[in-house]
Amino acid sequence: MQMLDRLKFLPAAAIALGFVASAAMAEGLKPASDVKIAVVVHGASSDAYWSVVKRGVDDAAAATGAQVQYIAPQVFDSVEQARLIEAAVATKPDGIVISLPDKDALSSAVKSALDAGIPVINIDSGEVAGEELGIPMYIGTTSEYLAGIKAGERLGAAGILKVACINHEVGNISLDERCQGIKDGLAKSGGVSEVVAVTQDPADVTRRVEAYLASSPDTQAVFTTGTAGANPLIKYFDEQDLWSKYKLFTYDLGPEILQSVADGKMGFGIDGQQYLMGYLPVILLTQKATHGLWVQNDTYTGPLFIDTPEAAKAVQALSKEGTR
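Structure tokens predicted for LacI family transcriptional regulator:
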């Protein structure tokens, strides 16, 4: 039987679908269920901040039907993250999502992905570094440095001129830039800021900050670079009744931070809307693999300042859902 004769016996819809499928295969496209995406970042999902990112990743995977893996070192370790990226590249995924806290440590792994023709999206950190490495898209807050400047200017305008910037991942480009931005923003009002290096161990955070405040009694405010520093310090401020003596501010949000702002204790939390950092890349990479579509610009998810009890209460319901 000739091909045209066989086609007579096929339903029109089946014929149409066959032609569409053939066209998609010819262009290297595939159905969403066959799309494989690796999300290889420096933050473990057990971290309050990164758990929201992972929620975004999981929701996007469910929405698209793509096969998505969230991969991260157990602790902040750029060398290990680089190894994990290389391992992901070897699986030949349809896209890779990375964070870029350390350009030097991760550049070789990133180059491997790009050289393999794998679409890469950078989230959360290293916007400028990623551009320099040739990563085509960044999704996250606008320059961490500029966000820090805005925060420093706010503090200076409020008469706060001596600040301790608590960095729980020294060497992470984004956190270093946050502290530098605060310092430079404060300088416009004649203020100063010093970096206090801590680990992600809550006891270590409290111990080191307590020692710093004892040695620098003229400190007016403590500014943490994320939930790893903020959460134990909220507890410490409560236990030691320090709210009237020092102001406390932070980057990033979480249930404890939102409650503290809602109670009128913390000055503000800076919201990077990290749920979108997890959700959007999966959506975009799936669209590229299934339809050949690609957004032409970076996407900025923040910063937003949650600086009043009313604003904090409005966000709390979303935080309970794991999306803020």
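DSSP finds 13 helices and twelve strands in the chain.
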